[in-house]
Amino acid sequence: MAKGKRLKKDIAEHKVIGLDTGVFIHHFEGGEYSELTTVVLERVQDGGCTGVVSTVSLAEVLVKPLQLGLGSLADLYRVVFHEMPNLQVVPVDQDVASRSATLRAAGGLGPADSMVLATAIEAGASAFITTRHELKEARGLRIILLSEYL
Length: 150
Description:
By secondary structure, this protein is α/β, with parallel strands linked by helices. A 5-stranded parallel sheet has the order 3-2-1-4-5. It is globular and about 35 Å long. The N and C termini lie close together (11 Å). It has one domain (2-149): Rossmann fold. It has helices spanning 2-11, 21-29, 34-45, 55-67, 71-83, 94-107, 111-122; strands at 16-19, 50-54, 87-90, 127-130, 142-145.
């Protein structure tokens, strides 16, 4: 797990971390990020930190499996979001919506990206883990870009 050693060290300082939709997609679909997403999700599951994910992310991860008729994969995502230890699934409320608008106004983010970031910020995350380069400049928490650990 050479790729994950530095990542593990970098996330160790955070008690609450926001998780982008791609963390789950890359974990379950495999590929170049799967070793890193395993490090992140194991840290959450083992109680090393609390993971925060938006209900917007649940909606996003379900789309492709449902389009492809992969009901079992959609069910797996639902179970993970509902039952994974130390994972908080946070709904969009007025505070998240307001923070999302501020992020969109400041950085030109789209609605889904700004919602998942706003959710993490409002839930007290100090870091946000993503695979999306366009989120690197977001303000309000440390953005941990998984590609930097490959």
